[in-house]
Amino acid sequence: MTHRVQTLWEADGLLEAPRPLPDGSVLVANTTAGGVYRWSGDAISTVVDRRRGIGGIALHADGGILVSGRDLAYVHPSGLRTVLAPVGATGINDLTVGSDGSVIVGVLRHQPQAGQTAGPTELIRIAPDGATQILLDDLLWPNGVGFAPGGETLYVAEYAAARVRAYGPHGSSVFADAPRGECDGLAVDADGGVWVALGSGGGIARFDAGGALREVVELPGRFVSSLAFAGTAIYVTTAGALLRIDVGVPGVAVPAAAIPVKG
Question: Is 113 helix (H, G, I), strand (E, B) or coil?
Fold first, then answer.
């Protein structure tokens, strides 16, 4: 299937963590140059200044946002408030929100920019009461995270292993392997399809609910970092651009977080 690819915004650096807003604008992080920006048609505004390494953004029920990076932080007018900073971690990568407002985050314990090899690390759930639970502790560079329709199964991309894992009531298993490149950001559609950014593979792949590869949307020459649904449109971030692709099927809605924040 051929999809029309629209380029919405071009910027120097690796764009990441697209998060569509109800008004049609989109939050986007620049993980290398730093900051979170709001794209709204032809206008770009700064939401968070300078912060680097952001791999995930979530809306919060109180109207603020959560951002990853060296820790998980809540963005407040007075500054950033740390919500989670696991001991010994080098950072928090991508994240998602469960139907109860809990937040699922992937922990980093290596320095990718320094060429360090990824070792086993955790996927952590933060409950609405603030309690934390380790869901998985053997992930090789956890990246995109998303729930299947119904919320029973959770998918997490393992960048260093170029695969997607599925986690549910019966434990975890390998759901799918990247057809090329790596498994970076991830989003799930209402039919149970799992869409994965292929990193250096220059595209996004769709796997059906059984893990079979059904489609690859080609984005030649681009490092593809992440993606998120807004209706039937997928917003895609790459090295240098924010793109929009209509894929004809809506995504699973990601609710606002309801975890406690300090202050």
Answer: helix
> Cα(82)–Cα(255) distance, rounded to whole angstroms?
21
Q: What span, in angstroms and rounded, lies between the C-alpha atoms of 118 and 141?
A: 6
pLDDT tens for each residue of 30-56? 999 999 999 999 899 999 999 999 999
Q: Phi first, then psi: what are they for 17, rounded to 5°?
A: 55, 50
Q: What are phi and psi of 68, to 5 degrees?
A: -90, -170
Amino acid present at 29: A
Amino acid at 46: T
User: Based on the number of CB atoms within 10 Å of its own CB, is 77 exposed (0-12), middle (13-18) or buried (19 or more)?
Assistant: exposed
| 88-134 pLDDT tens trace | 999 999 999 999 999 999 999 998 877 888 889 999 999 999 999 99
In degrees and rounded to multiples of 5, residue 162 shows phi and psi of: 55, 50
Query: Cα(203)–Cα(212) distance, rounded to whole angstroms?
Result: 17
Rounded to an integer, what distance in angstroms lies between the CA atom of residue 226 and that of residue 262? 29
Residue 166 pLDDT > 90: yes
